[in-house]
Amino acid sequence: MYLSLPSRRHQSKGGQLSGKNKRKTVSRASSRKSRAESGFSRNDRGQYYDSDSDEEPRSPTKRDLFLEAELSNVDSILADDKAFDTDLEIEETTTTYDRKTDYINDCKKNGIVPASYFLRHMEKPQLTMSHHGLGEEGMKCIARSLASNTTVLNLDISDNWLGDTGGLIVCNMLKENIYITDLTLRDNRLGFGCAEQIGEVMKTNSTLTHLTLSGNQFDDKSAIFFADAITASKLEYLNLSHNRFGEIAGLLLGPAIAENTTMKELDISWNNIRRKGAMALGQGIKNNDFMKKMNVSWNGFGVEGAISLCDALKHNQVLEELNVMNCRLTTEAAVLIGKGLAVNETTALKVIKCAKSALVRISRGSSASSQKVLCPSSLMNLNVGKWNKINKRGNRTLLEELDSDGDGDINFSELATGHTEFKERTDNINTILTASQPRPLTT
């Protein structure tokens, strides 16, 4: 049997050994390590020799025998799990990061009054800091705290007048934070200055799924960055409404929408997209196989955009909701959209908003006859004011009047029937009024 002697270094760490099987800080790992590091072994004759030296073997001394006996006692203790006191082992300590203290100190350094609401809610999943007047400096302190925050998932910092600089601060924060999934930056006057950085965040941050950028004065020059971002983005929801996108923006965003494979809802309402830009958006809707909801209301689509939407509705098999309210759709444009709906043979499209005061819910059956749709021009020609004047019951709304089966939905057959009844009542009233006119006198 060969036995290694422990080095002095490990003896000092382990403390003095006792023959009563009591050890204070000796561990299995340190004992094995000390034996392995020692170069002294004993041969079959009971002589000790140094395996790393060329010296001749020597006879054991009293010290060698004493250490050998002590090590045998250590082996017996280590073999007994109950005798080994694990409470005496050194435990790793972790430091806790006090975010509140750090945020307060950061505010003091920058001469900013700490936001008490932020201090109370900084560890909650939903954090709403809208209308707090943060500005650039206030956002800087909050962004530093949020960069390493792992609890906030939904962040709303709308209407804080961040400007270009404040927007860049938020973008830098999002490059480090990989936990925020829903971000609202509405009405912060971000503008062209940080459009490129926002686009980079959209492309690189795979955690962010919902992004609202409405009311930030983005124009056609900014559209190029958003077009590139939409193409490669993993976002599921994007809101670019109430900006300054025009015809050029539509030409850029349309192809990007066609290539996106993750976005389920896009809101680009309240912009100035028209003519060729509107046609490009329509082509983007046509070729996108993933979009569920599309809001292009309050844009100047007109007849040109309606032609593109007609083509899109003929081929898109996935779109469930389309909002084209107040898009300068004339009767001719409405007829074109109706033709697109009539050709669409899927049941995916459930809701289309095409007039300011009406929401049409499409209910289709399996038979070919029930799949025929009513041209939206009939809806647009339906004068709600005249209908209510004709309706003598007065306590029922227009939608209740149209919903003949009382299921809460107005399908196209009910809408067609209601429109026919409306025309018949109007014709009857006109006939009565004509008959009541005094006849011309004859000689």
UniProtKB/TrEMBL annotation:
Q: Which residues form the EF-hand domain?
A: 390-425
Question: Which regions are flagged for Basic residues bias?
Answer: 20-33
Q: Which Pfam families match?
A: LRR_1, LRR_6
Q: Which domain of life is it from?
A: Eukaryota
Q: Where is this region: Disordered?
A: 1-60
Q: Name one GO molecular function term.
A: calcium ion binding
State the protein's name.
EF-hand domain-containing protein
